[in-house]
Each structure stands twice: as structure tokens, then as C-alpha cells.
Amino acid sequence: MIEKISVRCICLLFSIGLHAQHTFSVEEAQQFGLQNNYEVKNALLEVGIASKQMKETIATGLPQINAEGQWQKFLTVPTTLVPSESFGGDPSNEFIELQFGLPLTTSASITASQLLFNGSYLVGLKAAKSFMAFSRMRKDFTENQIQDSIAVAYYNVLITKENRDFLEALVETHNTIVTEIKAKHEAGFVEDLEVDRMELALSNMKMQYANMRQRAELSEAYLKLILGVKLEENIQLTDSLPQLLNSSISFKIEEANVKKRIEYKMAVMNAELKKLDLRRYQTDKLPTIAAFGSVNTSSMGNEFTAFDTGSNWYPSQLVGVKVSIPIFDGLGGSARIQKARLVWEQAKNTKNQTEESLQLAHLSAQSEFINSVSNYEHQETNLVLSKKIYEKTLAKYREGLISSLELSQVGTEYLNANTNFSKNIYTLLIKNLNYQRSLGK
Q: 385-403: b or e for each residue (b if 16 or more CB lie within 10 Å)?
């Protein structure tokens, strides 16, 4: 008995794991997406890459130390010709053939160098820090885009489910009507034309309902995808359309602060990076100063005895300073400077254009949002009237006062009014989202 209970518990836990449940408000969905969305993860990795790149740039200005070991054997010791008179040789022979060196050499060395001054390095170090800040801005921009996409997907799920439920209720009502009219037809109270008309209207409604069910499923699947939730897991949305509409309609007109927008900050930082690039080319004309040192020891002989007891090792050390001064590079440096200056001018123009575009985008978003609020109120009134007309017409049809054709027409008008109202709700939520973003929020 205990074993059976254990098996059931394991199966229950396993099934719960297979169908994990996630509950989200819009804000909770956005926070969840920021932690699980693949684009946000890649943006965070880009920040990490920029950090490593900055450390890589810093490292070029720190001491560089290398160790080296070498063994070599001359298969033939090189021969050198020297004047015979220098060594008291036979004057008849102009040169004497001498072999300097031994066939086997073993050496070990440690070298160190330190960059003392390089203009490009100093500019590159500042550019690396600016690029790090730019990467963080891009990450924030990506997060804002993902948050907006999540909100839009969230709204779409609510709208499609609302339309699905509306069509389902309408289909159920007309199912009942078709059943009733078929019974009247069998009793001889109505013509078969009435039955055909209502069945045609019901068929169209069922087709729309099936399409809306599919759209609801696809919209929910897309929301899972952008959130980073597995498709086989379940999600439950806690915010309702009335809640979201109340928060969207209650607003006040605000002045936009374009300089708070991430897009503007990115344009400013891009111009700064292009300016630093210009300075980097300008500093290429400055001298480069570096210090270096080396410690070396070698063992030589006719046989390999470097590690034998008593073997002689001959040390050598050196230190120095190297100064490199560019004199003439074929005017390539001047061309690079001029090109970088033009690119910088482009970046400044882009910054100014971005500022003006964001200002215009704010005015446009504000106007569109105000219009969408007005349209929403108008469509809400239309839907209330259309519902009232449909209910009265339905009651008259059941009393036999009007024909099925008139009921079908009124039902179509009611369906269209609901569709237009749903579209306007979606538009209002999106326009509010765009308006808030245009304010730099």
C-alpha cells in the first residue's frame, strides 16, 4: 500500500513538473523576460565582452614579461674568413678560414618591457571606458525594447482571448436559435429559408470563432517565446483589460525630456567615440617610449653537458630605452586623420538629427495617444448601443416579430462593433506605451 502511494506521489510531482504554472502581471512578465529573454542575455554578454576588451587594452600598458629556453646544434659550425695578416699568417694567403663558436648551445632568458609613453594607448584607454559605457546603454536599450515587446504581446493575448470568449458566447446563442427555428420548421411555423439563413449565419460565426481560437493560442505561444517560457508550460495573466485601460486613460500631458532618452545618450556617446578615434590618429605622430631589460645565461660545448655537475653557464644582462619617432608615412596618417574627422562630423549630425527626431516622435506619440483615447470612448459608446440593439432584436425575433435576415444583419453589426472596439483597445494600449516611452520613462 505504501509503495502504491509513493508511486502516485512521484507521478504527481512529475506531472506538475511537466506542466509548470507561471502567473504574471504585465510588470512581472517584463521582469521575468529581462532575466530569461535571449536577446537580453546576449546584450549582457556584450557588456561582458566590452569589459574584457577594456582589460585587454589596459594590459598593453602594463609590464610584459617573457621567459624563453633554447637549445641549438650547428651541424656545421659556420666558417668566417679573416685577413691572414691580422693573425700573423702567410702573406701569400689573403684570408684565413676560422670557425668561431661551438656546435652545441643551451640558453635561458627572461625579458621584460614597459611602455613609458604612447599617445594612442592613452586615447585607446579612454575609448575603451567609453565603449564600456556605450555597451551598457545598448543593453538598457535592448531591455526597453524587450519590455515593450512583452507588454504588446501581453495585450494581444488579452484581446484575442476577449474576442474568443465573445464569439463563443455569440455562437452558443445562435446555436440555441438554430435549434429553436429547426423545431418551428418541423412544426410548420417557418419556411426552410429561415432555417438556411440562420445556419449560414451560424456557420460564419463558427468559422470566425475557430480562427480566433487559433489566434489566441498563437498569441500566447509568442508571449511564452519572448518571455523565455517553454511552450509546454502554462501561463496565467493576472492583469485584466479594464485594469490596463484605467491606468492608460488616466494621464496628464507632460513635456518630453529628449536628453533622458537612451537613443539620444547613445548618439552622444557614439559622437564621443568618433572624436576619440580622431584623437587616436592624431597621437600616432607622437613618439613612443618603452623601457626593456633582459637576463640571459648560456652553456656551450662540443657535447651536451649543460645540466652536468660543474658545467659552466655564462650570464649576460642588458637594459635599455627605445624611442620611436614617426617621421614620414607617405601621407597615410594625414588621410586617416581627415577621414576620422569626417566620420566625427557625421556622428555629430546624427546626434542632432536624433534629438530632433525624438522631439518630433514625442509630439506625434502625444497626438496619437489623445486621439486613441477619444476613439476609445466613441467605440465604447457604439458597442453599448450595438449590444442593446442586438438584444432587443433577438427578443423580437424570438417573439416572431422580425425575420432572420434582420437578426443576421444586426448580429453582424454587433460583431463588427465588438471587433472595432477590441482593435481600439489594443491601439490605445500601444499608443500609451509609445507615449510613455517618448517621455523617457
A: ebeeebeebbeebeeeebe
CA torsion, ordered 429, 37, 233, 219, to nearest 10 deg: 30
pTM of the predicted protein model:
0.78
* Per-residue model confidence as pLDDT tens digits over 155-205: 999 999 999 999 999 899 889 888 888 888 888 877 888 888 888 888 999
How far from each other are the two terminal CA atoms of the chain, in whole angstroms? 61
User: Which H/E stretch holds residue 434?
Assistant: helix 404-438
Q: Give residue-wise pLDDT tens across range 294-343.
A: 999 988 877 777 777 778 888 999 999 999 998 888 888 889 999 999 99
User: Can you tell me the distance from the alpha carbon of 239 to that of 425, in angstroms, rounded to the nearest whole number?
Assistant: 14
Nearest to 31 by CA among 20, 21, 23: 23
Give the pLDDT confidence score for residue 401 in this predicted structure. Answer: 84
On the question of pLDDT at 251 being above 60, the answer is yes
Strands (E) located in 118-264: 234-237
pLDDT bracket for residue 257 (50, 70, 90) = confident
Q: In whole angstroms, give the CA distance from residue 28 to residue 402.
A: 51
C-alpha cell at 205: 460565426
User: What values do phi and psi take at 152, rounded to 5?
Assistant: -65, -45
Host H or E run for residue 183: helix 119-187
Instruction: Round to whole Å and give the CA distance between 164 and 155.
Output: 14
Q: Do the Cβ atoms of 157 and 239 come closer than 8 Å?
A: no
For residue 16, name the pLDDT band (cuts at 50, 70, 90).
very low
Cell of 395: 427578443
CB neighbours of 362 closer than 8 A, spacing ≥ 6? 256, 258, 438, 439
Specify the range with the lowest mean pLDDT, choosing from 45-54, 228-237, 327-336, 340-349: 327-336
Q: Alpha-carbon distance 150 to 235, whole Å?
A: 14
Half-sphere exposure of 15 (CA within 13 A, CB side): 6
Write down the residue that cell numbers 678560414 correspond to.
97
Report all structural domains of the chain as residue ranges with CATH numbers, in order of start: 20-61+118-287+331-438 (1.20.1600.10)
